[in-house]
Amino acid sequence: MSINIEMPKLSDTMTEGTLLKWRKKVGDSVEVGDIIAEVETDKATMEMEAFDEGVLSEIFVEEGQKVEVGRKLAILTEPGEKKPTKTEAKPSGKAKTTEAAPQTEAKKETPRPAPVEEKPPAPKPDEEGEEEKEEQPSGEATERAKVSPLARKIAKELGVDLSGLKGTGPGSRIVRDDVLAAAHGASKAVKARTEPVAAPKAAGGAPITVPAAEDKQMPLSGMRKTIAARLLESKTTIPHFYLQAEIDAEPLARLRKEINAEAESAGRPKITVNDFILKATAVAATRVPLANASFQGESILQHGRVQLACAVAIEEGLVTPVIRDADKKSLSEISAAIKDLATRARSKKLKPEEYQGGTITVSNLGGYGVEHFFAIINPPQSVIVSVGAIVKKPVVNATGQIVAGERMMLGLSCDHRVVDGSVGAKFLAELKKLLENPPLMLI
Amino acid sequence: MAVLTYREALKQALAEEIERDENVVILGEEVAQYNGAYKVTEGLWKKYGDDRLIDTPISEAGFIGMGIGAAMLGLRPVLELMFWSFAYVAYDQIVNNAGCIRYMSGGLINLPIVIRGPANAGTSVGATHSHTPENMLANMPGLKVVCPATAYDAKGLMKTAIRDNDPVMVMENTLLYGEKWEVPEEEYLIPLGLADVKREGSDITLIAHGRAVITCLKAADLLQAEHDIKAEVLDLRSIRPLDEAAILDSVRKTHRALAVEENKPFCGIGAQIASMIQEQAFDDLDAPIGRISSIDAPAIYSPPVEKKQLPDAQRVIAKVLEIC
């Protein structure tokens, strides 16, 4: 019995993956659950786990090579068995022997015929094997989705993933209207995609180097492609409008100092300004729930919980890991959560479910000295908070005197299909109130 | 504006050009004293006499060859074919002589002739009288081919054809001779190679020429009324030169195309158009290009069956519904 190992689809937008590293080499025996290889998807590096046992008899893809989903990577054979002949090694329909390490994600995929996880974990190779091999070539792999040339072109421009779309044209062909509907969030396929990427953010903290003498052509990484497609879709299909407010950051700085002084003596981690902003955003989102909503074409979905996404710059671009149920978390829980997520985001160890499903996003460029900006909305969310640096500047105080103050600019980008000016203003006012009276958010 | 039949509009064009240019003469079988087999030249002999309208023996090879010779010596003959089906006996004159003389003389000899007459099926005159050779002749470099669909176009295209310095084949339609359209009193010309949007639409482009344009307009009315499909009808008017830009503009607007013709399907005008569209506007297509033509058989003699052989509005609608 021989089993093809294929490039698994590890996220719903993944169309190709890079085989970063083989953890097993030809001749190695593989047990169920062994990590065979590391695969880089469009947004994370993931471990590829074996669901069958055997000997890795042949490898077709070299480390660093980028291949499409479903492409045969290697062959597992029974111990002692010869290498399969060429005809046996024909690619079959779907990856049957490997699955993404995070099971939850794999289960969200469209149902596959006879998925491996429904079977006993390690089928007896000698009994079931023969039958299974016979069935493989007749699999559904030959079905090619029908897409009109125009639909394909528009999908490429808008970054719409065709694989999940249902065609409404003759013979179920995917036509232009299907792609446009998907791009506008009316289609299920696009609704399901709640991925990374929110705000344009300078990558990395390193100083900008002197431009090289020669032009450099840089191929797009998976992440860069996703960023490009998603932000183009957002900026071209969502009617953005922008609000901003200046915050008196003095009380916040004072409270933070007190908390951190105590934390330091108790050996607890420090709280950052960003942690306060995240906490305030979570609280404000529960008080103005329409800001925590998604446009769905025919309806608006107001989310019951706040899944708080936070833009994190990483070497290749950015991701927006999500703090789950942030409305229920305390300041220190939020602080710990974002610290952990950001660290793992930088080492590309996030699992897809850790950066999917956000309902509202915060993007903070204050650390770079940016005083104020407006981020692009992270669809299907409706608002994104952009945070500037705290700067000292002259302010007119309550008694009409000019004094030195500490101020911070908050920007809010809103999807006008969901959030009207007054709702956005109410949300921003709530945020301002909380940040200027930080004890309020701790209650 | 005056309302004229297609036949009257053609006659006006011929009369105006006879008066305008002393070199214009009309030759053909029974064009003079009998007023033309289909009465297109009715009254012209009486008015302009033997010098301008000349009855010829029943020999297409003879009078077309004579017209070619006359054109080489400076006249502008208009040669009437009783049916375009009879052109085949003069194929050598049309293709080898008329089509090649300018090229073979190194551009020294122009050949300003018009060959005109009906080229259509649908009148139960049998397979040998029902040919539609626009595709065959458009296939010959050196020949121009026009197929007017309305009285307005027939007059404007005929006048331009007569003034053109190359051989122009004007293919008319006996079923349209009696149909009426508005035609302006004042003089106008329609350039060759300029298609005309006969009806605006946004969902599909119906590309047609000759009487198929009328069929498409009927189909477009029904598509709008019964299926809420807005079909654009593009009348090619001239097969060669072909207005490729107009076809591409329309397809880029509607993203769907159906070529309709009364010609036979094999190597038809629709095949040429479909190939051109997919080559130049592939990424603008939201559906495969459709074609409708006459059913692929010699013209059927039985009137009820021949009716089915030619494209009608119902066939166009059915095909549009398949595509949209």
Would you give an account of this structure?
The complex is a heterodimer of chains A (443) and B (324). Chain A is α+β, with helices and mostly antiparallel strands. Chain A has three domains: 2-141, OB fold (Dihydrolipoamide Acetyltransferase, E2P) (Beta Barrel), CATH 2.40.50.100; 149-191, Dihydrolipoamide Transferase (Irregular); 235-442, Chloramphenicol Acetyltransferase (2-Layer Sandwich). Chain A has twelve helices and 19 strands. Chain A is globular, with a radius of gyration of 25 Å. Chain B has 324 residues and is of the alpha/beta class. Chain B folds into two domains: 2-183, Rossmann fold, CATH 3.40.50.970; 196-323, Rossmann fold (3-Layer(aba) Sandwich), CATH 3.40.50.920. Helix content of chain B is 38%, strand content 18%. Chain B contains twelve helices and 14 strands. In chain B, helix 8 links the parallel strand 10 and strand 11 (231-235). Chain B starts with a strand and ends with a helix. At the A-B interface, helix 3 of A face loops of B.
How would you briefly describe this protein structure?
The complex is a heterodimer of chains A (443) and B (324). Chain A has helices spanning 103-108, 125-135, 149-158, 176-183, 188-191, 222-237, 250-266, 273-287, 331-346, 352-355, 421-436, 439-442; strands at 2-6, 16-22, 29-30, 35-40, 45-50, 54-59, 66-68, 72-77, 98-100, 240-248, 293-295, 300-302, 308-310, 312-314, 317-319, 322-323, 360-364, 383-396, 402-415. With 443 residues, chain A is of the alpha+beta class.
